[in-house]
Amino acid sequence: MNIIMLGPPGSGKGTQGGLLAEQLQVRHLSTGDLFREILNDPSHPLYPQVQVVKEGKLVSDEVVNLVVEHGIQKPEYQEGVLFDGYPRTIAQAEALEHILTSTGQKVDLVIDLDVSREVLFVRILGRQVCPKCKQTYHKKQGFQACPACGEALVCRSDDNEETIVKRLQEYDAKTAPLRDYYRNSRAEYITLSISDASLSPDDVNQQIMEVLNQRGIIQDEI
Ligand SMILES: [Zn+2]
Asked: What's the pTM value of the predicted model, to 2 decimals?
């Protein structure tokens, strides 16, 4: 099963994707990880193309597509993939369709995390990250140090109001059109509307699993 998570920055795509990948037993494919892997391997055929990342420049659709096309061929991704952070544009979605079709696959399920702007702001402005294990927390949890590894938590410098507004505008312009694209595709499409900032990641995960059950996409286990 190939799954795509849609949702604006701060919607919890990464966290929900990680939980779902485990529950549905598909591999979690993060484009960020693919890029890091290539950047650490000068002998990789795509090494020259990904250097733009180091320069902090925007990576073109073309390069992102190449990285995904290359990465997805690894044996561990043959049984199905949950895509995290990809596709982000219509051009990327079209490329993905092409990549999957060439191996007789398709996007089977799209999960749209439709989180209200109020909730996004509460989440992003309160976000703290562990520099070591990358786990994220919220200020309201009251941690000074990472409960997992003890490292002092930090706020990301781009988690401020001005940057969030910019990132949301970019999402609306480039990524939000994917919702219509996938609604009109053969994939199962699930929307989860979230306007309650007090919902925990586990609450949201439970809601997703309930919908998947209701729609008969997964069988109730336990
Ligand atoms: Zn940590």
From this structure: 0.86
